Amino acid sequence: QVQLVESGGGLVQAGGSLRLSCAASGSIFSGNAMGWYRQAPGKQRELVATLTSSGSTNYADSVKGRATISRNNGKNTGYLQMNALKPEDTAVYYCNVVVISTTGVMRSYWGQGTQVTVSS
């Protein structure tokens, strides 16, 4: 069973930066799509950024220009660099990897989340 473990969250002042990491227990980043999502209190989980297997990226308008999604296949780790953080970025951030098997079966893996709190 693949496990994803996020880290790197914490308390930061507005304008600061954080790099979130998502470590996988197996080699699932290579050839698969990954994404970062976040959920603020009382709100639905929302997409922050995605990275396809071919390297294409997509960002939510709210973080465009401030976030960078990346991965290191050799380290089985994905990343989300967040700069110029705003109080509205406060949320639990989740890593997601979608694996499609050779038979076409899709499985979606989630981490447990890491809290990001931005103070004004």
- How many distinct beta strands? 11
How many helices does DSSP assign?
0
How far from one another are the termini? Answer: 40 Å
Q: From N to C, what is the helix and strand string?
A: EEEEEEEEEEE
Q: Give the helix/strand class.
A: mainly beta
Radius of gyration over all CA atoms, rounded: 14 Å
Shape: elongated
Percent of residues in beta strands? over 45%
Low-confidence stretches: none
Report the major sheet: 7 strands, mixed
Arithmetic mean pLDDT: 95
- Helical fraction equals under 10%
Protein described:
The chain contains no helices and 11 strands. The protein is elongated. The strands form 2 sheets. Strands 2, 4, 5, 6, 9, 10 and 11 form a 7-stranded mixed beta sheet that branches. The chain has strands at 4-7, 10-13, 18-24, 33-39, 46-51, 57-59, 67-72, 77-82, 91-100, 106-110, 114-119. The protein is 0% helix and 53% strand. It is mainly beta.
Helix-strand blueprint:
Layout: E1 4-7, E2 10-13, E3 18-24, E4 33-39, E5 46-51, E6 57-59, E7 67-72, E8 77-82, E9 91-100, E10 106-110, E11 114-119
In short:
This protein has no helices and eleven strands.
Defining key terms:
mainly beta, 0% helix, 11 strands, 53% strand, seven-stranded mixed β-sheet, 120 residues, four-stranded antiparallel β-sheet
